[in-house]
Recover the amino acids of this structure.
């Protein structure tokens, strides 16, 4: 059966590429994907999908659709994210973004096209699938403060679902190869913001001022000792300061300084510990250096942790579809994904489908203005989504 699925996926390749290019030209940022949603809903309706529900998070974006609801078997969900990024495209392709300043620079156009391909495949072979299918086209993956997956879970998209599977196009993995883990695959992603309040003054007379830049310098240096001296070296954690803003002239000590950063780990206990210790460092340092601090820590995205049994099953499907030499267990990444909210609720897995090929210039990093996808891998993604669904429903 998996070979039949593979053959069918290959036959759909041109259609899937056409869908991707259409979507690539019409990118929409998080919570604004209304045209995208209408396009997807129209195609799924033509395919015969039922219970097409449009509009999540209080808006008109995102949708779910179902097939085989009359069957008695399990239900699997297949997910694709649909939002783009506020990036000016520089990729040299003839299907460049028509929405100036917005670009599918992370592969979400590919995710939608592959899931549409899997949807068509499953609809045309639905008698061979012994259970129920739910498709999730999710908005706002790129919005860590209000992630679409969290909103959709709150609104019940996982009700009655026994397992979930998703694929992410991934330029760090060689094109046509599949990368997976049997546990954590992506880190949690949290953020902190602080404003340090001092007392401005002339740079020539620092004793008459309270310098927030000194406090910020001490805080940045001390934060890095948390990871190096308080976190088990066999565990992974990252604290990075991404933004520091202060001052108006070279010889003026500013009144205030603002700073923000990101915190990453795979371990929920370390995640909580880091949040607490960062606040301790900020408030303690400011107190010693006579400053005041307004501090905010945001728990944004939990770690994406694959269910071991589900990931093992899906990797074996990948081997049968793509070959043993093209499927490998990989190291997790400190990047993050809101697919984690689904995996916190039900068993499932999230895999990386490689698109990196220097000869095709498809090896640029995600979120780069020259990011491109190797269209030749899309049929593999279609086959994987449908193949994992079939295997899960048959076990």
């Amino acid at each position: 059966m998996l070979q039949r699925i593979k053959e069918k996926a290959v036959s759909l390749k041109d259609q899937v590429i056409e869908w991707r290019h259409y979507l690539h030209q019409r990118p929409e940022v998080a919570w604004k994907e209304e045209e995208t949603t209408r396009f997807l809903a129209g195609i799924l309706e033509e395919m015969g999908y039922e219970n097409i529900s449009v509009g999540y998070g209080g808006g008109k974006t995102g949708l779910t659709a179902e097939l085989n609801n009359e069957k008695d078997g399990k239900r699997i969900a297949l997910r694709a994210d649909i939002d783009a990024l506020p990036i000016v495209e520089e990729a040299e392709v003839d299907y460049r973004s028509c929405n100036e300043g917005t670009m599918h620079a992370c592969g979400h156009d590919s995710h939608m096209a592959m899931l549409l391909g899997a949807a068509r495949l499953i609809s045309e072979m639905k008698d061979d699938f012994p259970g129920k299918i739910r498709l999730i086209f999710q908005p706002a993956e790129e919005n860590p403060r209000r992630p679409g997956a969290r909103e959709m879970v709150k609104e019940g998209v996982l009700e009655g679902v026994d397992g979930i599977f998703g694929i992410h196009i991934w330029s760090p993995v060689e094109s046509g190869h599949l990368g997976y883990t049997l546990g954590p695959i992506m880190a949690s992603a949290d953020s902190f913001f602080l404003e340090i309040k001092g007392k401005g003054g002339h740079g020539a007379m620092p004793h008459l001022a309270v310098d927030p830049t000194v406090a910020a310098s001490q805080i940045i240096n001390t934060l890095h000792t948390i990871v190096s001296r308080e976190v088990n070296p066999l565990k992974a954690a990252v604290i990075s300061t991404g933004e520091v803003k202060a001052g108006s002239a070279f010889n003026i000590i500013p009144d205030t300084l603002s700073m923000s950063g990101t915190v990453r780990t795979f371990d929920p206990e370390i995640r909580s510990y880091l949040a607490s210790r960062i606040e301790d460092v900020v408030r303690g340092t400011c107190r010693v250096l006579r400053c005041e601090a307004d501090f905010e820590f945001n728990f944004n995205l939990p770690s994406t942790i694959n269910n071991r049994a589900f990931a093992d099953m899906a990797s074996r499907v990948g081997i049968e579809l793509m070959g043993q030499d093209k499927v490998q267990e990989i190291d997790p990444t400190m990047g993050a994904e809101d697919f984690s909210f689904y995996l916190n609720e039900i068993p499932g897995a999230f895999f990386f489908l490689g698109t990196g090929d220097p000869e095709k210039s498809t090896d640029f990093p995600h979120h780069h203005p020259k990011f491109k996808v190797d269209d030749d891998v899309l049929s593999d993604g279609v086959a994987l989504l449908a193949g994992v669904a079939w295997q899960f429903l048959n076990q």
Q: What stands out?
A: Residues 268-288 form the longest helix (21 residues). The domain at 188-301 is CATH 3.30.70.360 (Alpha-Beta Plaits). The mean pLDDT is 98. DSSP finds ten helices and 16 strands in the chain.
